[in-house]
Write a structure and sequence with these properties.
Elements: E1 2-5, H1 11-20, E2 24-30, E3 33-40, H2 48-52, E4 57-61, H3 68-71, E5 78-80, E6 83-85, E7 92-96, H4 103-115, E8 120-122, H5 140-152, E9 156-160, H6 167-171, E10 176-179, H7 187-194, E11 200-203, H8 210-223, E12 228-232, H9 248-257, E13 262-264, H10 266-270, H11 276-286, E14 290-294, H12 312-321, H13 324-331
Parallel strand pairs: 7-8, 7-14, 8-9, 9-10, 10-11, 11-12, 12-13
Antiparallel strand pairs: 1-3, 1-4, 2-3, 5-6
The protein binds phosphoenolpyruvate and manganese (II) ion (MN).
């Protein structure tokens, strides 16, 4: 941003005050007189109003912001059925199976999530699958099973919307709409999902930059979404050792620099259950405001993503390791 000065003789003092705010500055000199200061404000922590308030500053000129609605959410939390997610709130555990397979399966999974101290039940009714011959979910019918399982266990529900035409029915059965990695830049879908006026879980595209991710959130907010929670789920990389490459740098950036709600999905990142616990610890250490972990009552029989699903005992063990249950005891209704 450009800071113009009322009087060039104030240049040193204004520079010192800007630097005391942690800002990088450069003097713009013309005819040997400093008439303006260039300020690199890549920190969301200092507003232009704060700079304008410095004595001797005539005006602050900012380039148009790429995502003004999102920037205005810095430091704010997203509320999902009364559960707060984001800065300063206790970390939230979202869990459930990859796919909703039957009323019994999702019911058992929901009980396991509840016992582990989870607050949000996940499960796909509509599944994006690479192969058209793979199980793609039970569709609309599974939404009712998911909704019932959440209600019976006092859990909020998040589930993916794959198509614009399903937004209304999914919105009628969920507390939060999920946009999957493959659809992060499906702009028509983002518009339709945003216009439902609900909180959205926005998974990062597997080859999307952080800026593209932020811009997709702006699309959702512009369309009317009631808050966006980012979900890092790993990037496509050169190395097949893990299913994806978990980008914790991006998580730290979203949480600490942009100060926006972000959760980590270690399940799709790792693709294997034995790495869920260490990646979960790392995610929380990096600043994640919660985790989305796949679990299944019988992972060996799962119709999708079985190798990365925890069984109920493993989920409870993970939650205990992360000291989630005692945390939630203090906050649970
Ligand atoms: C999911 O969460 O079920 C899913 C399909 O994940 P992603 O979009 O991250 O691949
Ligand atoms: Mn899955």
């Amino acid at each position: 941003m450009l800071v113009t000065l009322s009087d060039p003789r104030d240049a040193e003092r204004v520079t010192a005050e800007l630097q005391a705010l942690g800002l990088w500055t450069e003097k713009l000199v013309k005819d040997s007189v400093t008439r303006a200061l260039l300020v690199r404000a890549d920190s969301a922590h200092v507003s232009s109003e704060r700079i304008e308030a410095i004595e001797g500053v005539a005006a602050v000129w900012s380039p148009p912001r790429a995502h003004p609605r999102l920037d205005a959410c810095a430091g704010m939390r997203v509320t999902v059925a009364g559960i707060e997610i984001g800065e300063g709130a206790p970390p939230v555990l979202m869990s459930g199976p990859c796919s909703v397979e039957s009323p019994e399966q999702i019911g058992e999974a929901a009980r396991a999530v509840k016992v582990a101290g989870g607050r949000v039940l996940r499960g796909g009714a509509f599944k994006p699958r690479s192969s058209p011959y793979s199980f793609a979910g039970h569709g609309t019918g599974a939404l009712a099973w998911l909704h019932e399982a959440g209600k019976a266990n006092g859990l909020a529900v998040v589930t993916e919307v794959l198509s614009e035409r399903d937004v209304e029915s999914v919105a009628g059965h969920a507390d939060m709409l999920q946009v999957g990695s493959r659809n992060m830049q499906a702009f028509g879908l983002l518009k339709a999902v945003g216009s439902a006026g609900m909180p959205v879980l926005l998974k990062r595209g597997m080859a999307a930059t952080v800026e593209e991710w932020l811009l997709s959130a702006e699309h959702l907010l512009l369309a009317g979404a009631k808050g966006v929670v980012f979900c890092e789920r790993g990037l496509r990389s050169f190395d097949p050792s893990t299913r994806n490459l978990l980008d914790l740098g991006a998580v730290a950036l979203i949480a600490h620099v942009h100060r926006l709600p972000v959760v980590v999905d270690p399940s799709h990142a790792a693709g294997r259950r034995d790495l869920i616990a260490p990646l979960s610890r790392a995610a929380l250490a990096a600043g994640a405001h919660g985790l989305m972990v796949e679990c299944h009552p019988h992972p060996e029989h799962a119709k999708s993503d079985g190798p990365q699903a925890l069984d109920p005992g493993e989920l409870a063990q993970l939650a205990a390791q992360l000291e989630w249950r005692p945390t939630l005891k203090g906050t649970d209704a």
